Amino acid sequence: MNVFTRKPGPALPILPIWLRIMGRMKRRVLAVTLVLLGLGLGATVLRDAVPVSDAWSPTGETAQVQAEAASRLQNEQNTMDIVRRYEPGLVYISTEQEVVEQNPMGWMFGQEGQREVQRGVGSGFFVNEGGDILTNYHVVAGEGGGAPDPSTRIQVRVMNAKEGVPARIIGLAPQYDLALIRPEGLSQNEIKPIPLGDSARLGVGQKAIAMGAPFGLDFSVTEGIVSSTQRQIPIGFSATGQGITQKAIQTDAAINPGNSGGPLLDSSGRVIGINTQIYSPSGAASGVGQNAGIGFAIPINTAKNLLPRLQAAKGGAVSAPRIGIQPGLVVQGGQGQIVPVGLSTLTAEGKRQLGLPDSGLVVGKVTPGSPAANAGLRGGSGTQDFRGGQVATGGDVIVGIDGAPVDALEDLQAALIDKREGDSVTLKVSRAGKARDVKVTLDGSSFQ
User: Fold this and answer.
1) Is the pTM of this model over 0.90?
2) Where does the record place the PDZ domain (predicted)?
3) Catalytic site residue 177?
4) Looking only at Cα atoms, what is the longest distance across the chain?
């Protein structure tokens, strides 16, 4: 029943009522007109300053206002649904490691270094029903990015749990800044894997949801967009201590210290990346990184390619693919280290005398039976010492890979890092001053 419908009753005298209404309307028409005009002007002036309901919206804009409101609510509801469904798959990771802090003057008084406990926090997420957790290598690594100390204690805590449980390392990938750990003592119903997406299908402007524990504030969520899908940044830890240049996802979703290892999700709730780094101008001065609207995540496809190797690592480390060469140009680094470098570090006169190109990676040795050997690459036949280093002579110089220039071992690794067994790369090689293309196919030895 219409609530505004009057119940049937006796007929009313229509004509007298009509006459009285007409008389009143003549007296009030001017006042009503002015009031309505004033309301119209007020609504125009205040329209952008106060909320306006659909009842007061101009007819032509009602549909647009309703559509915008519905869109906002849909996005909010989508975020809430994803958080409710997949946040239980997030884990809070804490580490403890005993270290000895050396007193620089302690040797004078026979004092030993003071033992302290270093603590760290990070994030991770379940990737399968077996309880495997993906996180960043640097979350569980030792001091300075070194291998984790055997004394390092790793604990993980799932959502709504009061206490954490110990976890052990299954596999490490320092060059990718990835690690796989597995908790001990969790019940099956506490393991909530988050589905993995396809980072190759990402588009700039796409929604991105970051989960993690910024500054130790566990189980936090932020939202933004994918700002870039092809950002090239150094990631991980190589033999020289520097990261390998890799493709990363850039996002403006707030990422801070403690978010490391947490998932970056799309609007369907699938993991598209693993949060790993931030760009922090203030951190360069203070030493504590803070979000500046630019964060980076490792594409999930990189992790998916690596998962089988991490699961089979038995607690050890896996490395980026190799083609089987040793760099032939090395210099003395700090603390007596031998560091491989590119030809751009030599003087122009030195390169001219040796008949070498302006830039490139000198091949010192080729491993027998390796992809490089099978492709016919040639190592040096001799060596030439110079002040501070040594260079191999008579061999090949790799100057490019798949169209990109090469001047260091990291350049070569960057092009190989996402490759699988059976993939091929094309090297541009200089031999005795002549350039040629060489196709190299990766085999099982590339991943050992």
Assistant:
1) no
2) 343-433
3) yes
4) 122
